[in-house]
Amino acid sequence: MNANTPRQSPAERDESAQQLLARTARDLPAGRHQFHKERLMVQIHQIQQEERTAAAPARTRRFRLPRPAITLPALAAALAGTVVAAVVMNDGGGVRDGGVATGPALTTHIGAATTKGVPQLLGQISLAAAETGGSHPAVKPGQYVYIESKTADSFVKTVDDKSSLASHALHRRQVWMSSDGTKGWLIDPAVNDSSEGETLSLPDEQGNTPVGSLNHPTYDYLAKLTTDPDKILAKIYKETKGHGNSPDQEAFTTIGDLLVESYPPAELYSALFKAAAKIPGVVVVNDAVDAVGRHGIAVARLDETSGEREEWIFDKKTHVFLGDRSVKVTASAGEDALIKPGTVTFTNAIVTRAVVDGMKQTP
Questions:
Q1: pLDDT value at 75 more than 70
Q2: With bands split at pLDDT 50, 70 and 90, how would you rate the model's confidence at 134?
Q3: Could you tell me which of 283, 312, 361 has the C-alpha nearest to residue 129?
Q4: Are 252 and 282 in contact (CB under 8 A)?
Q5: Beta strands of the chain (E only): which ranges?
Q6: For the chain, percent helix, then strand, then coil, each to nearest 5?
Q7: 2, 126, 143, 235 - which has most CB atoms within 10 Å?
Q8: Could you read off the pLDDT of 114-126 as tens digits, one per residue?
Q9: Contact at 8 Å (CB) between 298 and 311?
Q10: DSSP character at residue 356
C-alpha cells in the first residue's frame, strides 16, 4: 500500500472489504464464491490483528486462493489498494508465497479432443457412479465430509515489476466439512502458513451464516436437490446466470466443482454426469494425467475466453473419478501471454473421500 495512502479505520476497512467481496463475487465462478469469501475475510481479520500489534512489525503474506489462474487477477487488483497486495515483499526483498516453494511452470502435452463418444462415455461414467452408490454413505448430523487431495498450480509471479511464471509444488490438501456446512477445517500450505490449518466454520467475521446453495454446496443442500438431469441442469443455468465467461462454461465448471470438493449423494452424483452430457461444447480427451501421474480419459470443455480447457479425469476401465486439471490450450495477449499453451494452470488428484465422525479425524 502506498505510504501516502490515508490509513483506514477498522470500520472503514470492514466496509471496503464488504464492497470488495460484492464486486469479486460477480467475477468468480460458481461453486467457489463462498469458500473464497470466507478465506478473504480470514486474511483481512489476520491483517487487522497484525496492524494492531504495534510492538512488532506487521507480518504480511501473499493472498492466495486454491485456483489462482481463475480468481487471483481480479482479486489482486482490488486488494492492492484495499487490504493486501497480490505479492507482498518481506524485509529482505524476497517473496512470501503461502508456505509452498515455487518452481517452474507445470507443463503437459495437449491431448487431442473430440466430440465423438461424449454421450456414451458420460453414460458409462453415470452408470459406474450409480453402481458404486452402496459405498457412498449418507452424511449424518454431527459427521463430516473428509476430502484429501494432492494439488499443484502454475501462476504469474511479479517481483519488482517483473513478471514470470512459477508454480506451487505438489502438496497435500485436506478439507473437513460438516453436513450443514457451518463447521469446517482446511489444511493447505498453499493457502495458509500454519501446518495446523485454519477454520472454515461459520459465521464469518461479519456474523453471516450463508445457507446451502450451488455456491455453498453443503451435503444437506445437495441431498435435497432433484436427481432429474434436465431439471438439475436448468437449475444450474438459472442460478449461475451472469457468472463466468459463458453460460455453458459456467454450467460445466459448476458441475466440476461439485465433483471435486463436495460430496453429492449417490443418485445426484450419477445425475450430474447425465446433465453434463447435455452441455454444448463438451469433448473427450483420450489421454489426460492427474496430479499424481495417473493416466485416464477426460471429459473436458474449452473456455474460449481464457483459452483454458477444464478436464475431469476418470479411470479408463472403472470410470472412477480421479481428479481434474486446467490446461492452457490457446495463447493469450498481455500478461497472460506468459502462460503458454501446454501450461497446467491447476491440477488435482483425489486421494480420499470419506465420511468421518469428527473434525480433523481421518479414515
A1: no
A2: low
A3: 312
A4: yes
A5: 102-103, 113-114, 144-159, 162-178, 184-187, 198-199, 283-289, 295-303, 308-314, 321-328, 344-356
A6: 30, 25, 45
A7: 126
A8: 999 999 999 999 9
A9: yes
A10: E
